[in-house]
Amino acid sequence: MVFIILFAISWCSVDPLYYGLKCNHITKQCDQSNVYSSGRYFIGPISYFIPFPAYFRNMEFSSSRYADSQPLKTRTKEGVALSLHISFQYSLIKDEIPQLYKIANTEYEQSFQRIARNILL
Predict the structure, then answer these.
(1) CA distance between the termini of the chain
(2) Average pLDDT over residues 96-109
(3) What DSSP element (H or E) covers 118?
(4) For labelling, which of 31, 83, 95, 112 has a CA lying 20 to 30 Å from the CA of 38?
(5) Of 117, 88, 115, 119, residue with least CA distance to 104
(6) What is the pLDDT of residues 19-33, one digit of tens each?
(7) Sign of CA dihedral 57, 58, 59, 63
(8) Strands annotated E in the chain
(9) Where are the domains of the chain?
(10) 97: which residues sit within 8 A by CB, 6+ positions away?
């Protein structure tokens, strides 16, 4: 009976349009060698997946209520005020998700916003 229960809870799935990074509940370490695509996997009773989007994500700097951040404000060389309303898309590279997780954990979008703001200004 115990074997059946352990076998049943050892399966985990990655949702469609997502990648999964396998992590261990006990050691809190993630498998840096393999990123899983959508599907159902036998990963053991003490593991779980951290989801990462496999689709294009939008990042928008504007005054829209759906924007991620306010418009970018800067000045030209002549001192004229400039307000930039910018929107772009990005997607995560499957093979580089372990490095991204190592650097920013699951809070990578704030880092992307900060980097994009610095580059655009």
Answers:
(1) 62
(2) 91
(3) helix 108-120
(4) 112
(5) 115
(6) 999 999 899 888 888
(7) negative
(8) 11-14, 18-24, 30-36, 39-42, 47-53, 57-61, 72-75, 81-84, 86-90
(9) 2-120
(10) 19, 21, 35, 52
